[in-house]
Amino acid sequence: MNIAELDISHRYQATVRETSRMTPPDSGVEVRHIVLEVDDPTFHFIEGQCIGVLPPGPHEFGAEHHLRLYSIASGRSGEGSQAARFSICVRRCFYIDEVSGEQYPGMASNYLCDRSPGDALTLTGPYGRHFLVPRDESANLLMIGIGTGIAPFRAFIKHVYEERGSWRGKIRLFYGAKTPLEMLYLNDVHNDLGQYYDQETFQAFQALSPRPYFDEPPAVEERLREHSLEVRELLQDPKTYVYVAGQEKMSEKLDEALSEVAGSQEKWRAAKEKLISGRRWSELLY
Hints:
Blueprint: E1 11-21, E2 31-38, E3 50-54, E4 68-71, E5 85-91, E6 94-96, E7 103-105, H1 107-113, E8 120-127, E9 140-146, H2 151-164, E10 171-177, E11 202-208, H3 220-226, H4 228-236, E12 240-246, H5 250-262, H6 265-277, E13 281-285
Parallel strand pairs: 9-10, 9-12, 10-11, 12-13
Antiparallel strand pairs: 1-2, 1-8, 2-5, 3-4, 3-8, 6-7
């Protein structure tokens, strides 16, 4: 999704209703679960879409606005079954200036993490209608993500088991984080997804970074290799839909792992092309 090409002319005012830290203070990483409310009857969203956040200026280089996208982490009935409310998952980010070497706070993430209940902010969107749960409840869902890439999958799982009520196909979540404390919605602070482990069709496989202090990404690909037989069967099933969400740098290692699962690079390339052409492969990468 090219941010520069998005239409931001239609804007909404949202109010922060809840904000809570999902990672413990000693994790070194702050990720917040933020519940927003839009009191406008024209505002509608479905799981899998993104919302645009427009922090107030001034902006760098005289830019008119600063837009950042965040995946909606709620099902279409709304957070807590309140249609006007939805949640997003925000990690407080910083970046290093390549020239000076100085660290600067990410504008949108810090703006959001600093908001308090009752604060107002400006939104655009929602955007994206390609990252959607199929209507066929016998379809298999293979979801692969790291970090805040868990947000759309939280929305998927809530939609499937709470809004639809059941699912006959297999739902498999491969999710990674640097440490157990950063297993969003799956840690001691916020175990929102833990309640779905007793669902017969749902299984989750967690992966951690082998060297978190060296900023090495979670080894999700190793978990895929460990369960290669089931993953291969899912990829060969014409009723399987694959969803990938997280950092763009995970793509290369994911392709390597799925090439091994498929049997070769050529077999995986052919399988992926088939998934893409059949609209059964979707990505949300940043």
